[in-house]
Specification:
The protein is an alpha/beta fold. The chain contains 13 helices and 8 strands. The chain has one domain: TIM Barrel (Alpha-Beta Barrel), CATH 3.20.20. The structure holds 1,3-dihydroxyacetonephosphate (13P).
Length: 261
């Protein structure tokens, strides 16, 4: 993690926890996380849509300094899109970070690079920050195509986004083979790909944007591997799935700087 970039640890709850359980988790997490943690690290939680209002009122009323996040949104402002949620609706709820292009959305729901790009631009247009996810499958890695895949996803995902907007974004490198498998990328492999992400951003948006953009690693991040991953120069944060569903484990990831390597 470079000294000039503020770390960001995000909890992607995926399709887990109803609004009662969400309330409990956020409150438990607020007891575990200290003032020093919040001074050192940005923390975002990304509950399912049905929990957002509950989590928002809890963060507000209890003055809990976590950022509210969403997992997904539509790219259009309104209209006949049954079941979808517009970016402005999220912004109105105080959502600050929205995940775009998670591999589960790409692989299970068929989201294309073009759609992901439209979402990134819609999120930015509503003054929220996209967390743009990229990452290769195991087959692509084994075939030596990981960088080609990530480069294509980044170039398409960042198309027509201004350099100063890219600078404020978060990009999450999540190798698909590491998600939910317990098989984390080695710190060296994760660092190499996060450095590559930064080089693609430099190519597309210039070195200032590349120096500022925050790059997260995601894929089986746990308390036991968070410190080593976060010690890498191009890894500025973590996008955490399973381990963010329990207050103690998510808090220990947030407290990565207190762990021995
Ligand atoms: P896991 O931490 O459960 O592997 O999930 C990673 C992820 O997909 C976060 O977006």
């Amino acid at each position: 993690m470079a000294a000039n970039r503020r770390p960001i640890i995000s909890g992607n709850w995926k399709m887990n926890l109803n609004h009662f359980e969400a309330l409990k988790l956020v409150q438990e997490l607020s007891y575990e996380v200290t003032r020093d943690d919040v001074d050192a690290v940005d923390i975002s939680v990304h509950p399912p849509f049905t929990d957002l209002r509950t989590v928002q009122t809890t963060l507000d009323s209890d003055k809990i300094p976590f950022f509210l996040g969403a997992q997904h949104c539509h790219s259009e402002a309104s209209g006949a899109f049954t079941g979808e949620v517009a970016p402005s609706m999220l912004a109105k709820l105080g959502v600050r970070f929205v995940i775009a292009g998670h591999s589960e959305r790409r692989e299970i729901f068929g989201e294309s690079d073009e759609l992901v790009n439209a979402k990134v631009r819609a999120i930015l247009a509503n003054d929220m920050t996209p967390i743009l996810c990229v990452g290769e499958t195991l087959e692509e890695r084994q075939a030596g195509d990981a960088e080609t895949k990530v480069e294509a996803q980044l170039k398409a995902g960042l198309a027509r986004v201004k350099a100063e907007q890219v600078a404020d974004m978060v990009i999450a490198y999540e190798p698909i083979w590491a998600i939910g498998t317990g098989q984390t990328a080695s710190a060296d492999d994760a660092q190499a790909m996060c450095a590559y992400v930064r080089s693609v951003v430099a190519d597309k948006s210039g070195t200032d944007a590349a120096d500022m953009v925050r790059v997260q690693y995601g894929g089986s991040v746990k308390p036991i591997n968070a410190a080593e991953l976060m010690s890498q120069p191009d890894i500025d944060g973590a996008l955490v799935g399973g381990a963010s569903l329990e207050a103690a484990s998510f808090a220990r990831i947030i407290q990565f700087r207190l762990h021995d390597l």
